[in-house]
Amino acid sequence: MKTPNEKFPKEAITEAGYTTIWHGQKQWNGVAILSRDLEINEISRGLPGDPDDFQSRYLEALVGDILIACLYLPNGNPAPGPKFDYKLRWYERLTARAQELLEMETPVILIGDYNVMPTDLDVYKPEKWQHDALFRPEVRLAFKNLLDQGWTDAIRKLYPNEKIYTFYDYFRNAYKRDAGLRIDHFLISPQLANSLVDGGVDKEVRGWEKTSDHVPVWIELK
Questions:
Q1: CA pair distance 176, 184, nearest whole angstrom
Q2: Measured in whole angstroms, how far is the alpha carbon of residue 186 from the centre of its chain?
Q3: How do residues 141-156 score in pLDDT, each as one tens digit?
Q4: Domain named Endonuclease/exonuclease/phosphatase: which ranges (predicted)?
Q5: Is 148 marked active-site?
Q6: Average pLDDT of the chain to the nearest whole number
Q7: Is the pLDDT of residue 138 over 90?
Q8: pLDDT tens-place string over residues 17-67
Q9: Whether 36 contacts 18, CB under 8 Å
Q10: Is pLDDT at 183 greater than 90 in this prediction?
């Protein structure tokens, strides 16, 4: 969200017809969950496993009968280094929490910016990203270990062989060159795998003036 809690635009969101919960912080962090028709019941804020981690990167709530975890993984650069170590520890904590959620047998969706391109198909020039914290083998392995618990990468299930990007840097005319990355993911639990009917990215939004460097990613469940 890139905003502290007190500056979150709750009134404008309410006027637009949504209820919301949020977990904000200055500068780069912050997550939120919005719902148009369903009640949001907050479960927790902050990822378990490190009482000294005060970065606003995780928010968990029951929305209708689905548990939503909104997350923002650390970037991790420069790698190697302390920021990269923090990212790997965060992945370990997320994997532990994800296993607990699976064992609850409640439908779950883990949504957010994972700061990882899982495969070569998810980055425009893989050879140039080999040493970046978003593409290092340790991070891709951490994401694979998460998936191997039984989660489905929803967008990749719908488009197994297509080039799809969710992020375009502000530099070097990345959007117009289609030089993107797929780092924003929906991981859905086994109870929802057969309910996935559609999904995609709204790439054109990236061309708007003063827009985010991420594009909206969406899925539809029956």
A1: 20
A2: 7
A3: 999 999 999 999 999 9
A4: 19-214
A5: no
A6: 97
A7: yes
A8: 999 999 999 888 999 999 999 999 999 999 999 999 999 999 999 999 999
A9: yes
A10: yes
Q: What is the pLDDT of residue 76?
A: 98
Beta bridge partners of 69: 60, 110
Q: Can the peptide bond before residue 160 be classed as cis, meaning omega within 30 degrees of 0?
A: no
Check if the beta carbon of residue 219 is closer than 8 Å to that of residue 141. Answer: no
**Which residue among 37, 85, 86, 113 is the active-site one?**
113
Domain around 27: 5-221
pLDDT, position 170: 96
pTM value is 0.96
Q: For residue 40, what is the domain's CATH number? A: 3.60.10.10
What is the number of structural domains in the chain? 1
Is there a catalytic annotation at residue 113?
A: yes
